[in-house]
């Protein structure tokens, strides 16, 4: 069990635990550095930071930005961001509106398939957080229309499935620029989801990408080693995290299930600090 986990989600997006509950679990499991990286929102950061102030857990303020690509899935993690940055806030406000419109279209498609769900049902699952496909998947499982989160995606919500609704997101390049504008260190999340990582890196490294998520919980050790080597070839910081969404979400993504070296955190902080005149540090608690 590692003591650093840089990729987690709370009820502010599609996680199952509140920020306070996640911090409490991290403390119980001996996590010393916890990255809060909710999808397209920073709403969970204040509560997580407040909870961590009373425990031996240091919070890395982060975000996971969704992007639009032809194939695969490219997400950009931002570490040591300034949550109040106006460029970031403007992007998130626009995205929140687009996400809600997408959620309504998803509900409409599910109802056309004979599945009686409503926006109110989705909102109840989301508990005030950003509505995502994961919430729809949990709703389908709860109503007995799917046996698991994976089945819900495979049958209804995945790309080219009957309830899938295309997303309105920025390009990966723009996501990197948004993280940089917020004073953060941009990192390519779960790079194998991107299709050909080399192609994506060729596009994003020149515009400021600084890291690659090599120690990802769902990747086998040999794949993780290959990604560490890939990061080295491109001069990137190897990072890692569980992508933990809460108990019962996906067994492979258990909190603290990867072993991330402290050097990675220090290098991310240094890169963010160099971009904002010396402000990025882990808080003393």
What would your notes on this structure say?
- The structure is a single chain.
- Helices cover 41% and strands 13% of the residues.
- It is an alpha/beta fold and 285 residues long.
- Strands 1-2-3-4-5-6-7 form a seven-stranded mixed β-sheet.
- It is globular.
- The mean pLDDT is 92.
- It comes from Thermomicrobium roseum (strain ATCC 27502 / DSM 5159 / P-2).
- InterPro entries: PHP_dom, PHP_domain, Pol/His_phosphatase_N, Pol/histidinol_Pase-like.
- This is Putative PHP domain.
Assign a percent range to the helix content. Answer: 40-55%
Order of helices and strands: EHEHEEHHHHHEHEHEH
Uncertain segments are none
| Cα gyration radius (Å) | 18 Å
Largest sheet: 7 strands, mixed
Question: Which overall shape is indicated by the principal axes computed on the Cα atoms?
Answer: globular
Relative strand content? 5-15%
> What CATH architecture of the domain at 4-84 and 182-197 and 209-275 do you see?
Alpha-Beta Barrel
Could you tell me the mean pLDDT?
92
CATH class of the domain at 4-84 and 182-197 and 209-275: Alpha Beta
Give the spatial strand order of the biggest sheet: 1-2-3-4-5-6-7
CATH topology of the domain at 4-84 and 182-197 and 209-275: TIM Barrel
Structural class: alpha/beta
**Discrete helix count:** 10
How far apart are the first and last residues' alpha carbons, in Å? 22 Å
- The overall strand count is 7
**CATH homologous superfamily title of the domain at 4-84 and 182-197 and 209-275:** Metal-dependent hydrolases
